[in-house]
Amino acid sequence: MRFVSSLFTISLSILLLSACSNSAKSNSNNSPLLNADSSSATKVKPTDTTEVSTPTELQGFCDASAAVSLAPDTFIVAGDEDNILRVYKPSISQKPTSTFDLNLFLKVVPMDPEVDIEGAARMDDKIYWIASHGTSKNGNARPNRRRLFATEVKVANNKVTVVPVGKPYIDLIDDLSKSPELKMYALDAAAKIAPKEKNALNIEG
Known about the structure:
Layout (H helix, E strand, L loop, with lengths): L1 H29 L1 H4 L28 E8 L2 E6 L4 E5 L9 E4 L1 H4 L10 E7 L2 E6 L16 E9 L2 E11 L2 H6 L9 H4 L15
Antiparallel strand pairs: 1-2, 2-3, 3-4, 5-6, 6-7, 7-8
């Protein structure tokens, strides 16, 4: 049904564009303003009413990969280069107003410690974070990247509290690979292929 709906939308758009084009041609041939002598034609100066917003520059790290709004002027951000959550309130500071180190909770292996957090979704007061579950760029195993975890976030009196929930789920790929409905995707094999290669498994935010 989505495919049929999309075709209908595209067809309708083409018809509207065609009608607008024909109308424009007709008006250009009959318009006294456009056909009049240039010396007597009324010149209309276009008015640009476009509002350009001022960029907000935040500091503290780069490569932000997942963010969730906590309040009208407050949000929490994860990056794919470290395992720290940062809370920003741009109206107060360009730097994080608070940070939360997840290394201990995520139980990372010291070698290649980045979890590579790539996505986040909020449900009530919990935020679920997911790592890339991929290999290194050369196809080497990166166990730390197999993480799906949750944090409980509360905002009270302009103070943000982040508390890890339960323990990280590290068997997502293994469990999905065992599902009969997903066998055709060969996820266990895909998870061993370098992220940019064909048929590789890699989650990107």
